[in-house]
Amino acid sequence: MKKISNILSLIIAALTVMLGCESTTLDVVESPNALNPSQASVDFFLNQIQLMTAQIHSGEEGRAENGLSQFGMEPVRIQHGFGPTYRESYDPSDFDRVWDNVYARALIDIRTMNPLAEEAGQFTHIAIGQILEAYIMMSMVDFFGDVPYSEAAMGGEGILNPTVDSGASIYQAADQLLVDAIANLNKDETSLPSDDLFYNANEDQWKKVANTMRLKLYLQTRLASAEGFGASVSTSRINELIAGNQLILDPADDFFFQWGTNNASPDSRHPYFDANYDGAGPSSDFYTCNYYMNLMANQYGEPDPRIRYYFYRQQEDFSGADVVTKECVTEISLPAWWDPSEPYCLVPATNGLSGYWGRNHLDDDGIPPDDAFRTLHGTYPVGGPFDDNSFRNVSGSGAVNEGLVGAGISPILMSSYTYFMLAEASLTLNTTGSARDYLETGIRQSIGTVMDFGASLAEGTGFVPTSTAVDNHIAEILAAYDAGNDTDKLRIIVEQYFIALWCNGIEAYNTYRRTGQPDNLTPAFTTNDPGPFLRSMWYSQTAADSNTNITQKSAPSTPVFWDTNLDGFVD
């Protein structure tokens, strides 16, 4: 009884305390590890949005093939794609990470940041978000066609299965975003971004990015039949942009993401550096396509001045390589279906440079232990070593201190790209300016940018291209241009654009489908018909499985809205 009495006394005392606190509000502080959006920093949101843009472009550590650039380089013979048919080149699940980064990360962060920035009067933050959103969504249309947008990243409003919007409507929305971004950049803001990873809050440079993206948009849609697009609209808009003189025309305004050198927690290095030099296994199965290396090594009288900056050769003497792979060394006769003008395995040393070991388009043979022979990504743009004829085996795990130690860049919109786009527009739409002059400036600016990027590594090697060598190389290209018809001229413009686009497969993939150039690409290696070209990519497997408004394509050959070329135009 005594114990019961004591328990009752404790209960009564507790009730008395609770009743006495009836009118008191308990000040409960939310966990700092679970901040709600109103407590978040607008600068942190912007930082994450910029990083997501770089990862959507170039991939992530350990996920080197999950950036759009990799998916774009492989079909156009810059990087090697395994195939053996276009339909089998990729699985829908290969695109899950890209879709996740776009819809579950970048767009949600933009949607969450904007009202906070609007309330605080931080209009430059909003403008940068608008520019990056336009770029991301244009890229999604370019690769996948019709995709969710108007209802995307709006789960808070109960839209769990966003509808698919037409590619043309998304392009129209992207153009409006860019126009609105320029208007926001012209407003007075309460504070500029404190951690702008691209331009350190330089509003004038962001305006040039927005205008150059509009140039890209209207060049991309010059063949489109959708309302608001087409040749006449593109001609008018591009001439307006040229007259406005607010494009990325100088390397000082180049739009790229700078990666770091940290190799853990987090790994901030360029994803391709990680894959080539510090990845698991032999270079993570990276091969550069022999077509592309041959284009740079042997097309003209001397190798392209950028070749030692782009590629690192690990071997010069392959006399013993037949122990590893007989196909690449001891093949005596070419298959009947193979074009004898193209390199079968090793790029021929026509101009004196030997040792370029890659793969041919859609060759899906097994991977031999050839990691010591493969030509790797070099200094530009991934931050690897400069090719100084040292021929060292540096691929695979452990080679973490090579070159610039991974401090490469993701080249998104460089000044040279602007000039190549203007050259195409001048030739095909008769827009303002000389296509030949634009071509020359584009080549010069690309070479200059690459040489400047790798200057610290190339100095003292004896292999820095002289100004005379650069001038002679450009003169040879221009002589071929002058001697050609319009088809030849367009081919030369696009070939040189492709070379400048090393590690930017987004623009290469778009340009090939738009122009059909270069029209002399290496054929598919497979002896069977590779099937229709990848006019677009599969929808993400996760998206098709989870969103009732997305129906997976029957084949990845459906053209996107701006690609109105006939079937078989590209292969």
TrEMBL record:
<dbReference type="InterPro" id="IPR011990">
    <property type="entry name" value="TPR-like_helical_dom_sf"/>
</dbReference>
<keyword id="KW-0449">Lipoprotein</keyword>
<dbReference type="InterPro" id="IPR024302">
    <property type="entry name" value="SusD-like"/>
</dbReference>
<keyword id="KW-0732">Signal</keyword>
<dbReference type="Pfam" id="PF12771">
    <property type="entry name" value="SusD-like_2"/>
</dbReference>
<dbReference type="InterPro" id="IPR041662">
    <property type="entry name" value="SusD-like_2"/>
</dbReference>
<protein>
    <submittedName>
        <fullName>SusD/RagB family nutrient-binding outer membrane lipoprotein</fullName>
    </submittedName>
</protein>
<feature type="signal peptide">
    <location>
        <begin position="1"/>
        <end position="19"/>
    </location>
</feature>
<dbReference type="Pfam" id="PF12741">
    <property type="entry name" value="SusD-like"/>
</dbReference>
